[in-house]
Amino acid sequence: MAQKVYLSNYEFKEALNKYLSEISSVFLNKEVINTEEGLGRVIAQAVYSKISSPFYNCSAMDGIALHSSKTIGASEKHPIVLEEGKDYIVVDTGDPVPKEYDCVIMVEDIVNIAENRIQIYKSAAPWQNIRPLGEDIVEKQLIVPSGHTVRPVDIGAMLAGGVNTIEVYKKPLVGIIPTGTEIVEPGSDLKVGDIIDFNSRTFSAQVIEYGGTPKRYGIVKDNYEILKETLKKAVSECDIVIINAGSSAGREDFTSDLIADLGKVYVHGIAIKPGKPTIMGRINNKPVLGIPGYPVSAYIIMEKVLKKIVENYQGLKTKEPQKVDAILSRRIMSSLKHLEFVRMKLGYVGNKIIATPLSRGAGATMSLVRADGTLEVPQNVEGIEAGTKVEISLMRDMEEIKNTIVCIGSHDPILDVLSDMLHLSSKHYYLSSAHTGSMGGIMALKNEETHIAPIHLLDMETGEYNISYINKYLKNKDIALIKVVKRIQGLMVQKGNPLSLKSISDISEKNVRFVNRQRGAGTRLLLDYYLKKLHISPDQINGYEREEFTHLSVAAAVANGDVDCGLGVYSAADMMGLDFIPVCNEEYDFAVPVQYLELDIIKELLKVMKSSEFLKKLDELGGYDYSDICNIIY
Amino acid sequence: MAQKVYLSNYEFKEALNKYLSEISSVFLNKEVINTEEGLGRVIAQAVYSKISSPFYNCSAMDGIALHSSKTIGASEKHPIVLEEGKDYIVVDTGDPVPKEYDCVIMVEDIVNIAENRIQIYKSAAPWQNIRPLGEDIVEKQLIVPSGHTVRPVDIGAMLAGGVNTIEVYKKPLVGIIPTGTEIVEPGSDLKVGDIIDFNSRTFSAQVIEYGGTPKRYGIVKDNYEILKETLKKAVSECDIVIINAGSSAGREDFTSDLIADLGKVYVHGIAIKPGKPTIMGRINNKPVLGIPGYPVSAYIIMEKVLKKIVENYQGLKTKEPQKVDAILSRRIMSSLKHLEFVRMKLGYVGNKIIATPLSRGAGATMSLVRADGTLEVPQNVEGIEAGTKVEISLMRDMEEIKNTIVCIGSHDPILDVLSDMLHLSSKHYYLSSAHTGSMGGIMALKNEETHIAPIHLLDMETGEYNISYINKYLKNKDIALIKVVKRIQGLMVQKGNPLSLKSISDISEKNVRFVNRQRGAGTRLLLDYYLKKLHISPDQINGYEREEFTHLSVAAAVANGDVDCGLGVYSAADMMGLDFIPVCNEEYDFAVPVQYLELDIIKELLKVMKSSEFLKKLDELGGYDYSDICNIIY
């Protein structure tokens, strides 16, 4: 049986600083490169110009160069005639002005009177229209100081100052070793148990963003000796090496032993969540990190540890993320055992920024894609109450967040389509939806956390949809209902309907394996409505307690054979190639505070919803009746 | 004689929008690339997952997988014994859970009692510790919408969702053609009249920053036929082509004719400063720009025109620069003829942001290097008064600007050294100096525009330095004087002193060509002091009216043979390899408001000034006596 080794639990910042100081001798190596290849590099040695720019006196105008003494006394009444070659030469802008001349008269102030003769009507002052040597850059002047990160304009100025090579800090080559017997390359024929190696590709892109150069090695199986050889090779070829994963304490987690074998482990296990099973070590004076396998843990460790190493390696200033204050919409519980980074969705609703925690699972890649920022919950804090003002480190531009429609409530596949089409129609607008179920949408409207709540709530007494719920739960608010679609709800079953299900009563009678939706979802309320009507008790349903959050998740569970049946919309069943037994038609609408109907972004959304492209897409998805779309009921 | 063709003067934004709409058919070409190479690319076709992630039910823990029914009734008093293979299998985190099992018990809750037998003490709930299929990403779920710019996390999520290739907008290849008979490659042996081609290198770096790929062509002489062949080649190879320069209306400016010859010119001349002689055209459905030769004009046109084209080409969102409000320190005059972009230096002094215009010359590359932002003066505005609140588009992080010591006043080469050493000593601190002369420094203190004013002002009556000026001009302020150096002022003359100058009186007696410093410079006041003492009138000095702004510029003019002599400090003469005739010792100090002495950044500066590295550098520069350095007189 697996043995359990316990990791240490170093306080994060302390461990990181200790580690950075242990490896500080590897930082700030210098190299000389061509100035023109310097973009983004950090200057190691202050750059002083080698020549002046311009390095000779030159004309600032198109015109003639001459000595000012030849022009004394010229006036409208007494013009002076000058001869080319004898008195002046013709110059264009930038042409050198010979030493015997001290001024330039611009072409507009000259009258040609013969092939080589011109006339002038006023005298010229010494040095007029001449760009003197060094006007822009004087020889030996400081152009950029040490520690400066090179921009395009710096490249221009350094080359203009005769500086063709520069001394910069070396940019680290970061070796990335994906490990694991179960890991396979993207594009492989997948079999159950395989895990696609996407982490190493995310790491490569992160390394580029941090200012390093990534070098990805092939996947190494969980074999100590092979891994050891690969690690030795990577350490000899690269400046920094990261190993993913095997950094925990399971049966095949020997990254830590391996680093200790070849070098030294400073830290194994830090008080951070996600990301605890992290290893910080060194082999042959090269930093070596063991990065956890879960993608969110890996992301956090890359951001919080590797980024700092890459920055320190070449003297890059740390780019701190922009921060913003927001109101926490839900209580967050954390543990005193660790510092936690929680991914947050932000919504700019009614001039307030609302922050809602996303899935905190270490495997939730989509929580990173969907996140607008992160909230740091310190180690000594057990929780933060809803309504608290919190500081969020942004992962997305505030401008984008302000131009995003927040849509919290019931899920339907058309929300994905709308999100895409809105952004296509107006590239500054976004729609972001969170799937909390219809009642979650009603509560979000009540708490002023959302612009729109998609709902499909059947009043069991009147048989009417949505309106009675708004009247009951949002009676103090001015809410409009944008009609969207009538959609077909029904039983999703495997292709060919192997269990020959015909209706909801079959679920209990045939004891089929069912999967339910989460509490508060309109679809669950619909199930409950039918169960009550049919006098079926929930505990007669095998799987009533098993919850999924979207129609697609339910359909996926059926398609995979995990369960035999679930309740959901036609389009989701159709997307997954399932059979579908219609149960009822229901009305899926958007509840929205009346004042938001005036927002440009909501008007744009309505425009998209009325467009023929969108309606065509609804036809393709199937199971939607959009005859009332965009009718507004106040 | 040169003929003058007048350019058109289209209103800038109108011309740009017209042009962008003319060439809009070339934008948004699509291509398919590998997902892992997608960083920074713009999604052309919304990405939906192809598989779920995980694509099978898997264990969320290290432990055993089994069916929950086997655990019913387990308790501390009545543990249940289970047998490996028959009742359970051992699983690590991520391992698949076979369909016959529905839960995982974590290793911590298990007691091994024999080789293949374990004991449990509580029952397990169905689905506990299982990551169900699709927990992270459900098949056919939207991962990123069209128009989204790919980040590292998106690459991970797309690969996890089985999406190995993506459709993105094509990234443009931008051809850059430097032209001009006088243009030479960096590193060439320079002769008078040569101009180093640094523009095309700056352009390359700018194109990379904008999100395009640059392709630089060799320098083309001003020959219509050769240029035509190169342009045809570039148009056939690239997506966008820029020609630098020949875009004006001088003798050899035939870029416009050439574009018209091969295609169409939409605009030649826009009401923008700098940057008027710009050409916007098209050849074979490829955008072709003629970019002015002056580096600042070129920079502005790249930023305002090419950047937009590169962004529109691939559907990138325009990254607007951050903006900040600042108080204008000097009056700016502009013309009704054009929209003007003025480079600005910002100073964060006493909780106010002060904006000071930098050199407005189109050739002032260093004004771009030194700029913190730009001020846009609209075409219909003739000027902006000092003290006005203006909006600045930042070119540098506000955080950096806030950590910068503003130093306005007299120039000495040691300011360059201090700027470099301060940043080396503490990488978050900067020193930025503007050379306005000592009296300019006094005025900047008076107007609260600077932290520090370097001054060397001789009281002609008492012979005392600096203090009497502070008492006179800054009597209402609490100013301290940080002693810096005594430095030697003297006559800088060519190596070997060919005119055998011995003293200031020789300048007028021998009628030597002199170069002066600007009004308000302490060195000019020093000259005036001696002239008065020697009863020499300024008009007896040949070159009294010719002004340079720094010691180095004066030294450069002497070194170049433009003039025979100038007054300045020893270190500058020495740097340029000149001979030096000492005239006097003077005291060069920093005047600073007393309250700023408490700022950490000023304390850090004093630390640097007292360091042995700095004093060693003073010895190397020569001519400095630092026995009083960092003594503070209140």
Describe the structure.
- The structure is a homodimer of 634-residue chains.
- Chain A has 17 helices and 38 strands.
- In chain A, strands 31, 32, 33, 34, 35, 36, 37 and 38 form an 8-stranded mixed beta sheet that branches. The first copy, chain A, has a 6-stranded mixed beta sheet with strand order 16-13-17-21-20-18, with helices on both faces. A 5-stranded mixed barrel of chain A has the order 22-25-24-26-28.
- The radius of gyration of chain A is 35 Å and the shape is extended.
- Helices cover 26% and strands 28% of the residues of chain A.
- Chain A is an alpha+beta fold.
- The model of chain A is unreliable at 1-5 (pLDDT under 50).
- The first copy, chain A, folds into 5 domains: 12-26 and 172-313, Molybdenum Cofactor Biosythetic Enzyme, Chain A, CATH 3.40.980.10; 30-53 and 136-169, Molybdopterin biosynthesis moea protein, domain 2 (Alpha-Beta Complex), CATH 3.90.105.10; 58-131, Molybdopterin biosynthesis moeA protein, domain 3 (Beta Complex); 323-391, MoeA, C-terminal, domain IV (Beta-clip, Beta Barrel), CATH 2.40.340.10; 430-633, 3-Layer(aba) Sandwich (D-Maltodextrin-Binding Protein, domain 2), CATH 3.40.190.290.
- In chain A, helix 9 links the parallel strand 29 and strand 30 (430-435).
- Chains A and B meet through strand 11, helix 2, strand 15, helix 3 and helix 7 of A and strand 11, helix 2, strand 15, helix 3 and helix 7 of B.
